[in-house]
Each structure stands twice: as C-alpha cells, then as structure tokens.
C-alpha cells in the first residue's frame, strides 16, 4: 500500500512554493512586483509622518543569468519613518510580519510584499539583502540578511552600527534579483507615472539599468491628513474576532466592552443593543460561554440601529489633488473629478473617487484607457478581473455623448481601511456590490458633467463653423449685390458680422 507522508510547512515556504499568487510569476513581472512593493513601503513610511516622500529607486545591471534574464541590483531609498533596529530582521526577513495589520488605510496590508521581493531575490541569486535604516536617532543600523525559508526566520549575516551625525531618517533596501527589465520597462515606467499622478506631493526618482534618469517631481507640498486607526464595526465582526477582543479587554462589563472596542458604539447605542439582545449590561464579557459568544455575534449582525461606519478614519485624495495629478500626468483639455460620499461594505468604510479626462494629450485608441488606484497604489495588471472595468463596461456611454473613439481616459480610486483585493499580489479588486455601485454612481455623475462640456463645445464649434462660412461669403454677396444695384461702393459688412458673432456668443 502506498504510504502517505504528512508535513507542515512555514509561511515563507508556502510563498516560496506559490510565489505566483503574490505576483512573482516570471522574470519580467517579478522585477516589476519587487520595485512596486518597495516603493509602496517607502510611500507608507513617509506618509505616516506626513512628510512629503522623497524616493530614489535604482536598478543596475549586475551580471548575466541566462540568454533572456539578467541579474539586477535593486536599491530603494526613502525619507520615511525608518524601522526600529530590533524589528529590522523580522520586517525584512520573516514572511507575514509587519506593522500594518490594523484597521487603517495604508498601502501595505499583508506583511508580505517586501519579503516576497527579498525572497525572490534570494532564490534567484543566492545573495543576501542589505537593509540600512534609522528612525532619526543618533545611530544608523545596517543588516545583511537572508530568509531561512524552512523556518520562516531571518538569518542575520552581518550587522553594523554607524554614527548618524546628520540625523538622517529613512530606509535603504538593496538586493540582487533575476529579472527581465526590458520586458518589464513599459509597466515599470507606467507604474511611476501613475504613482506620481495619485501622489502629486511625492518626489520619485528612478534610474534604470541603462543609466537613464526618470524624475517625477512633486507639484504640491500639501498632503492629505494621515489616516487614523479605527475599531471594528459591529456588522463586520465574527466569533473569532469577538473571542480575541474578549481575551484582551480590560473591561469587566458588557456596556464598557461594547463602547470601547467597536466603531461608533456609544452609550445609548450600547444600551439599546443590550436590551435588544437581552444581555445584562453588567455581565462580564470574560464569563461568556462559547454559545453565548456565537449568539452575541448573531445579535450584533441583526441589530439595525448601529450607525454606519464613519469615514473620518479614511484619507481620500480629494478632488483638488486628484485633478492636479490627472492634469500633470495626462495633460488633458478638460477633466472632471468626483468624490463620492463615504460608504461601507462588511463593516469597512470606503470612499470612491473618479476622474474623467478628455482631449489634450489623451490618445484616441478605440477603447478608454483606464487608470485604477487603490489606497493610492496604481493597479496595472489583470485589468479584466477588476470591479472598475466591469462597471465601466456596463455603462451606456453613448447616453452621455461619449464614444470609444473619443480621447477619453477614466481613473477610479478606492480608499478603505481594507481594500477587497482578490490576491496578495494586489492587482485587482473584488466585485463587492457596494463598491461596484459607488463606482457606477461616481462615473455617471462625472459623465454628466463631461456631457455638458461636450454639448457646450459642440455648440461653440458649430457656431464657429457658421461664422467661418459667413465671413467667407458675405463679402462676395455684398460685392455682387452692389454691382447688380449699380452702386460703386460695396457696403461695410463688418457690422453685420459683429452682430451675428455677439448674438451667437450670447446664445452660447
Ligand atoms: N521603507 C520602509 N520604511 C519603514 N518601514 C518599513 C519599510 N519597508 C518595510 N517596513 C516595515 O516592514 C513591514 C513589512 O513590510 P512588507 O512590505 O513585507 O509588508 P507590509 O507592507 O506590512 O504589507 P504588504 O504585504 O501588503 O506589503 C512593514 O509593515 C513596515 O512596518
Ligand atoms: Mg509592503
């Protein structure tokens, strides 16, 4: 009989075996994914201090791997918050370790991205990564490390402490990886361009393996307020979460427990809920039996009087910044931006922002270029699986006088304490009905404004054509009529043309 063997694998081992689900599918996509993961960490790190990000990325050639792929050195430097020295090894050498497992709007979500990049580098080049960081104190810490994949632990190969005379604050990550830059180049450049579009307060510098410099300079020093951490909303909780909260709570009665651990639950709502669920307000949550916790969870979901999630913990881009970004990167003739009111799915608040740009340097392609963003990250791959694309395709654009051959570009941005990504590669967003509905409403609102602009422009164009015809033929008509009437002097038609013009302008 065949013998079955059972074994357990670590989280690092899992992602080592299944790196495709994190976006590290092939040498071209891997180099793109590594770059974006590090850039996103740097943006988060600067924004958490409300410091306008200064990010420097350099990809340099470091040797041949095969006929198609090469070894590159990737270096990313930032002016962010820095990593405290005791956390550097795990933050960069232990999969599923991070500081962003919070209900807070951030780019990072999984505690995985940076490590996936380093892990990919390690398995393709067998070399360690170098991390240099300081939180702005008197010392700078340098670590050389690898990931012990089987144990999911950092392996520290070298550690140095340097004096920080200038009180530099930030992080530098450098490692080698195999990749196909020339195939990935269009996507990487597009990534920087779109990142600049939704982060117009960031300075991004990219030096590519040929030494070409791409600079995306900030157009504003104004930054959105840093997002705040929030508590779970009662509609989104499950038994596991309740059990965890009960374990850590210092509160000894249900009233205080509900008021202190849930989003938008004040004294009045808590009292109403306890009456509704028939639970004593003095009951100690730590004494709830398992079946009572299950019942509590069901009652929380049933109670209709909880306030909807409050979006003050979110930090959307805002109409002004979105407009500035679109104008800067797409250079359209006209742009309309629209921010929807906050909404929620499964207890998570979210805000949708959309922009429709028209004319100028936007190309006529036969399909609309779609720019998708989530928590200020551009999403470039797997467009067809994204909720925004499904919504855009379902809108009847002709109703708004918009046809696919027009130079129209569409941007959608969702910001949330929890973006419903479909994979850990963060490339496309799940089709949550609430999210889809908000995107559709936002786009319809923006499309109506574009329609007004197009109608006005069409009218002006038509009148200008008419005036062109008038000014071409009126002199001739005047001349012939003068001849026919036997008059020597042709009448002055300027006055007539002026009156037609001013009449038309008034109408427009
Ligand atoms: N440039 C940086 N500056 C400051 N802290 C950083 C930087 N890069 C990484 N970190 C820290 O390391 C942690 C792990 O980063 P990693 O990219 O692996 O995961 P994440 O950003 O938390 O989530 P995600 O998998 O969604 O990227 C972060 O949570 C953050 O605390
Ligand atoms: Mg990250």
Could you describe the largest sheet, including whether it forms a barrel? 8 strands, mixed
The coarse silhouette is globular
The averaged pLDDT comes out at 92
CATH superfamily of the largest domain: Histidine kinase-like ATPase, C-terminal domain
Strand content: 15-25%
- Alpha-carbon distance between the two ends: 87 Å
CATH architecture name of the largest domain:
2-Layer Sandwich
Which ions and ligands are bound to the chains? adenosine-5'-triphosphate, magnesium ion
Structure description:
This protein has 508 residues and is of the alpha+beta class. The protein has helices spanning 11-17, 27-47, 88-93, 113-125, 181-198, 239-248, 254-261, 267-277, 290-302, 319-330, 387-394, 433-484, 494-507, and strands at 54-64, 70-78, 129-135, 139-148, 153-163, 169-179, 203-207, 213-216, 334-339, 343-345, 348-358, 370-374, 377-379, 408-416. The model has no long low-confidence stretch (mean pLDDT 92). The structure holds adenosine-5'-triphosphate (ATP) and magnesium ion (MG). Adenosine-5'-triphosphate (ATP) binds at residues 37, 41-42, 45, 78, 80-83, 91, 98-100, 108-115, 171.
């Amino acid at each position: 009989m065949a013998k079955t063997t059972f074994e357990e694998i670590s989280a690092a081992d899992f992602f080592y075996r299944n790196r495709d689900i994190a976006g590290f599918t092939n040498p071209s996509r891997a180099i793109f994914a590594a770059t974006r993961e590090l850039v996103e960490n740097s943006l988060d790190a600067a924004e958490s201090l409300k410091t306008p990000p200064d990010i420097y990325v350099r990809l340099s050639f470091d040797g041949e791997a095969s006929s198609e792929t090469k070894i590159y050195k990737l270096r990313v430097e930032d002016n962010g918050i820095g990593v405290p020295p005791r956390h550097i090894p795990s933050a960069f050498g232990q999969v599923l370790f991070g500081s962003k497992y919070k209900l807070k709007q951030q780019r990072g979500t999984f505690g995985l991205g940076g490590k996936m990049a380093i892990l990919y580098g390690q398995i393709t080049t067998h070399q360690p990564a170098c991390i240099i960081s300081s939180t702005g104190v008197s010392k700078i810490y340098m670590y050389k490390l690898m990931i012990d994949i089987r144990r999911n632990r950092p392996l520290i190969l070298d550690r140095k402490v340097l004096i920080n005379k200038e009180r530099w604050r930030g992080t530098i990550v450098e490692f080698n990886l195999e990749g196909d830059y020339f195939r990935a180049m269009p996507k990487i450049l597009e990534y920087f361009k779109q990142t600049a579009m939704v982060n117009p307060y960031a300075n991004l510098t990219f030096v590519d393996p040929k030494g070409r410099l791409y600079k995306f300079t900030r157009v504003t020093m104004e930054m959105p307020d840093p997002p705040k951490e929030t508590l779970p909303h009662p509609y989104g909780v499950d038994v596991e979460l309740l059990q965890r909260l009960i374990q850590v709570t210092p509160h000894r009665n249900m009233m205080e427990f509900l008021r202190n651990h849930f989003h938008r639950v004040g004294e009045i709502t808590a009292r109403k809920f306890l009456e509704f669920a028939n639970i004593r307000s003095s009951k100690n949550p730590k004494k709830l039996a398992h079946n009572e916790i299950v019942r509590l969870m069901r009652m929380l979901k049933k109670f209709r009087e909880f306030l909807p999630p409050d979006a003050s913990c979110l930090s959307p881009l805002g109409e002004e910044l979105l407009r500035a970004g679109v104008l800067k990167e797409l250079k359209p003739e006209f742009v309309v931006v629209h921010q929807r009111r906050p909404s929620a799915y499964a207890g998570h608040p979210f805000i949708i922002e959309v922009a429709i740009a028209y004319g100028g340097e936007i190309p006529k392609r036969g399909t609309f270029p779609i720019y998708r963003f989530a928590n200020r990250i551009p999403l470039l791959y797997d467009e067809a699986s994204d909720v925004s694309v499904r919504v855009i395709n379902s809108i009847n654009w002709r109703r708004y006088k918009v046809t696919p051959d027009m130079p129209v570009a569409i941007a959608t941005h969702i910001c949330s304490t929890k973006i419903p990504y479909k994979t850990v590669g963060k490339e496309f967003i799940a089709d949550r009905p609430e999210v889809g509905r908000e995107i559709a409403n936002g786009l319809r609102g923006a499309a109506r404004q574009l329609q007004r602009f197009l109608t006005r422009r069409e009218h002006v164009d038509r009148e200008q054509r008419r005036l062109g015809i008038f000014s071409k033929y009126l002199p001739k008509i005047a001349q012939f009529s003068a001849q026919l009437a036997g008059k020597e002097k042709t009448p002055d038609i300027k006055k007539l043309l002026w009156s037609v013009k001013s009449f038309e302008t008034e109408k427009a």
